[in-house]
Amino acid sequence: MGAIYLIRHGQASFGKADYDNLSKTGLKQPVVLGESLKDRVPQLDAVQIGSMKRHRQTAEGCLQGMDNNTGWVINAGWNEYDHEQVIERYKPAYKNKVLMKADLAKTLNPRREFQKMFAAAIERWLSNEYSDEYTETWQQFQERVLKALNDLRESLGPSKTAFVFTSGGPISAVAQHLLHISDDDIFKLNWTLANCGITKIIYSDRGMYLSSLNEHSAFEGAHQNLITYR
Description:
15% strand; alpha/beta; Rossmann fold; 6 strands
């Protein structure tokens, strides 16, 4: 029996000019995670990361915490969907990030209003009614992620252990496939994924199965201040 650990990146820099960069909290999270995995995962055969900066930073921190020097392979198949395009197609004026921040700042709870707006933008993307407006449709995104998963599984061989440092969207797409969750419900799951949470897949010649979803016990107790979701 082999295992593939899908690890969501640490907290990114929401509201900053460069979202694709871990925050101060986000840099601490993978190190703490790695320390908790050091004894749990004594053998690590392969590591893959998406090509985003936050994926690399998370991999560096986690492997540092594990005292593990396994090298990694970059696979853009594990990249997140283009959330900026999803927002801009829903509300073209928000291509201007200054305007978006100004509009949100006028509300009582900017983060909640952003979440509400983003959920509506995601719903539009999932609907298939405007597919020609997106560089990558929801279905194309799903296919890309599942190809990355299947290619990794084939490359590993039997009874190996791999880490994948990726984002919430790909993890949700994998969970949707393995649990047969509908498109209408998948982002209810996506919103609950913790930064540096682990989704574990076990595999054998009989197939792939979800063993755990969004496990983040490394941040409970003494490290509960490190639990974040965005």
